[in-house]
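Changelog entry: the 4-hydroxy-tetrahydrodipicolinate synthase record was regenerated in this release. Current contents:
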Amino acid sequence: MPSSHQSQPSTTDFSGLWIPLVTPFRDDAVDHDALHALAVRMRQAGIAGFCACGSTGEAAALSHDEEDAVLSTILDAAGGLPVMMGAADCHLGRMLERVQQLNSRALAALLVPAPTYIRPSQEGLMHWFTRIADASAHPIVIYDIPYRTGATLELATLRALARHPNIVAIKDCGGDAAKTQRLIDEGALQVLAGEDVQIFTSLALGARGAIAASAHAHTDHFVALLRLLSTGQLGAARALWAPLQQHIRASFAEPNPAPIKGWLARQGWMTAELRAPMTPASSAVVDQLCAIQLPQRPRDAQGHESD
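Regenerated structure tokens:
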């Protein structure tokens, strides 16, 4: 039986830049001091919000107790900024238990992918997301990332899911430009660019925001880029986007989040440690990231420095 949460539509606005925070480790334990300091630093750059325990946060390598502790640290450091929480499984019963556990937390949304490995039908995907949305006290952001899950969400399925009052947005990593454009044009779901290389295109076409792992570095430039795009200043945005593309390519030259963790470690903000089977990025890639130079302060179309 659907819960009462189903009748409570969300008014959450997911505009702007969201940071899917890495999870710092030290000696195979979560380094909460480094995580807190990183979240404070990102917050001060003018971002819209945080994503805790997504794929960039190596959530698949964390226990639920570790995830809960990571979330608590981020909420404490967020200073009132909204936080969405990643929630993933391939077993519906376990997933619904996890949703119930998270219902009491102060979250902007749950970021939910299709179940991995199973590759259900479109009917199965409808059932999966509907049951989760029925059970959740928080809005649902669909995480459409078929190259990780093995499941493709068709446009008709997304349209049907968008009719659920608790399913409000999509992190778009689907790789289908036509589907992305239709979702933006129809407006039933807020579209968030999930592939960093697609930020400019998606925002210029009308997407609401972005969840960008590479924006751990040069965060103020990414914030300025999204502001320029949201106000139609395409010329100024294009000038800012050109040098950011080099940084984005290097950030994903090896499996995420290894390169960006290497960059963060070079700043002295955390170790570059990842949990097996993930391995640290090569020195060559981290050297490449650290060598990229961007203007000291991004400027808007009138030549004024951004906030």
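The beta strands are 16-20, 25-26, 29-30, 49-52, 83-86, 109-113, 140-144, 167-172, 190-193, 209-211.
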